[in-house]
Specification:
90 residues; 2 strands; mainly alpha; two-stranded antiparallel sheet; 53% helix
């Protein structure tokens, strides 16, 4: 997807992935897969650093409602750990 030319709505839609928050609410996140891989490449040691970096990068491309940072960061860490097989320690 990086470098993919957005020529149509279908291409743009492929860049959006669903993220399920703790309360069951689902949000669409632009560039989620790329963000997860970028953060993994940083090889951060602890979950708090990973959550902070994930949230910071997600906010570049996506709106995160005020007060929702904790919900988003926990859900993002869950997705990160699904993809890379790390244990969740929150």
């Amino acid at each position: 997807m990086p470098g993919e030319k957005l020529c149509c709505p279908a291409a743009a839609a492929r860049m959006v992935k669903k993220l399920t928050l703790a309360d069951g609410f689902q949000v669409g996140i632009v560039n989620l897969e790329s963000i997860l891989k970028e953060v993994a490449d940083l090889k951060l040691a602890d979950n708090e650093s990973i959550k902070k970096e994930l949230l910071q990068r997600v906010k570049i491309y996506n709106y995160v409602a005020p007060g929702a940072d904790d919900n988003y960061s926990k859900a993002l860490l869950g997705e990160y750990e699904k993809l890379f097989g790390r244990q969740v320690c929150t």
